[in-house]
Design a protein that fits this description.
Largest sheet: 7 strands, antiparallel
Number of domains: 1
CATH topology: Jelly Rolls
Shape: globular
Number of helices: 2
Number of strands: 10
CATH architecture: Sandwich
Helix content: 10-25%
Distance between the termini: 30 Å
Strand content: over 45%
Order of helices and strands: HHEEEEEEEEEE
Radius of gyration: 16 Å
């Protein structure tokens, strides 16, 4: 997990903050890092909002899934519609993926930790194996623009409420077992 966090934060810094210092070539450069241009992130954010406008409640778009040596690193843009406070907490846990959320817009309250009651095992084409179900004894934590949430693999997590019309965040996913959908380019 420690190496995943270091890799994720390096990717976040290079891809979000550092992209303005590079030429037009944003692909992996021999001996250099992989840059995801700001314009591509913004385009993906707009696509996600369009998905919500069409009636979806969640849009999770993989921007890139990069081979970083001993594992893959997934970068996704996620948007969720407003969620009223829930009496019963529900969520998921990724069997193979560590996640770091960087909140870009909106705010809400996450539920993390605790334990599942009779979880259901599923397999997502996008994110591999996961558990889902009711969460008991989870911790409620408010998040807003600029916050970062770190969710280790196996930890139950979900949204207790989203107080704004939508929330947008970038997820960095450490994927040592290559369970995520592969995407190596903007195409």
């Amino acid at each position: 997990m420690k190496s995943n966090i270091k890799t994720l934060l390096s990717l976040a810094t290079a891809g979000i903050i550092g992209s303005a210092n590079f030429a037009d070539h944003h692909d992996e450069v021999a001996g250099g890092s992989f840059i995801i241009p700001k314009a591509e992130v913004e385009e993906t954010l707009l696509q996600g909002l369009a998905n919500l406008a069409e009636g979806r409640t969640v849009s999770d778009i993989v921007v890139r899934h990069i081979d970083v040596g001993e594992e893959y690193m997934g970068v996704s843009v996620v948007q969720r519609s407003k969620v009223e406070p829930r009496a019963i907490e529900t969520g998921i846990a990724h069997v193979d993926l560590d996640e770091i959320y960087y909140i870009m817009a909106g705010e809400g309250t996450m539920v993390t930790g605790g334990k599942f009651v009779d979880p259901t095992e599923t397999n997502s084409n996008l994110l591999g194996p996961m558990l889902r179900g009711e969460i008991r004894e989870g911790v409620l934590q408010k998040v807003e623009v600029g916050d970062i949430a770190i969710i280790p693999k196996g930890m139950p997590h979900g949204w207790h409420e989203i107080t704004t019309d939508a929330i947008s965040y970038i997820i960095f996913r450490g994927d040592p077992n290559e369970v995520m959908q592969i995407k190596n380019s903007a195409e």
